[in-house]
Amino acid sequence: GAVVSQHPSWVICKSGTSVKIECRSLDFQATTMFWYRQFPKQSLMLMATSNEGSKATYEQGVEKDKFLINHASLTLSTLTVTSAHPEDSSFYICSAGGTSGGSTDTQYFGPGTRLTVL
Amino acid sequence: SQKIEQNSEALNIQEGKTATLTCNYTNYSPAYLQWYRQDPGRGPVFLLLIRENEKEKRKERLKVTFDTTLKQSLFHITASQPADSATYLCALGSAGGGNKLTFGTGTQLKVEL
After folding, report:
1. By Cβ atoms counted within 10 A, which residue in A9, B83, B91, B108 is the most buried?
2. Regarding beta strands A19-25 and A10-13, do their DSSP bridges make them parallel or antiparallel, or are they unpaired?
3. Which residue in A has a C-alpha nearest to residue B5's C-alpha?
4. Could you give the percent of chain A with pLDDT greater than 90?
5. Cβ–Cβ of B49/A44 closer than 8 Å?
């Protein structure tokens, strides 16, 4: 139980294009989903928190107009990197918090999406 | 500012030994602390959660301690195996924080034959 998927697992795009990453909770309903970014040899940095049906809450320093988050249902959240640039190249990971039988404080992570912007 | 420190240097141990990883934090009063395992190019996998009123938690070969006075958590893997080789992350959460987690940088563990 408590499986989270991400799609795509990797993507290469040209500078200036937009990229959408999907995050799905497969066997539970996720009222809250989180989006992280991880650069090589660094920790996971929280970008934003999204709750189903409401606007995402962004962490300080994260541009909400650049990283568009939509949490349209209890099983799907999307992150769109708009007008991507090479400095946006990173490993993007989503997580979902839910009540799949474990603690509600537990987050279940997706496998991540490697974004490379040329 | 809040700071979470884990050993940045890789920890190399021999198979069968106990691996001990450290997580220290400052300027933080976490309600709970979690440990995750992360393999290269993959998302973190939840291992254990320990709350501020708990001293120790065990799960199979894993043991976590939480000392809120020292502001430290220790993560132990007994009878370590090469398959335990990975990066281990500690993450702190606060009460009323909406399940938000703040992660340490992780410690890479290598278990050698």
Report:
1. B91
2. unpaired
3. A43
4. 69
5. no
Task: Give the distance from residue A80's alpha carbon to the nearest chain B alpha carbon, in angstroms.
Answer: 19
* Amino acid in position B1: S
**Min Cα separation B42/chain A (Å):** 5
A74 alpha carbon, distance to own chain's centre: 14
3-class SS of residue A86: helix
Interface contact B43-A103, CB threshold 8 A: no
Residues of chain B neighbouring A23 (CB-CB closer than 8 A): none
Reported as a single tens digit per residue, the pLDDT across A28-44 is 888 889 999 999 888 99
Q: Which residues of B touch A111 (CB under 8 A)?
A: 42-43
Per DSSP bridges, beta strands A4-7 and A19-25 are antiparallel
Amino acid identity for residue A73 in this structure: S
Q: Nearest-CA neighbor of A40 among B108, B93, B35?
A: B108
Whether B79 shows a pLDDT value over 60: the answer reads yes
Where residue A1 falls among pLDDT bands split at 50, 70, 90? low
Q: State how beta strands B101-103 and A30-38 pair.
A: unpaired
The answer to whether B98 contacts A49, with C-beta atoms less than 8 Å apart, is: yes
* Helix (H) / strand (E) containing B64: strand B62-67
**Residues A81/A116, Cβ–Cβ less than 8 Å:** no
What distance in Å separates the CA atoms of residue A50 and residue A69, rounded to the nearest whole number?
Answer: 7
Q: Which residues 6+ apart lie within 8 Å of B71 measured at CB?
A: B24, B25, B26, B28
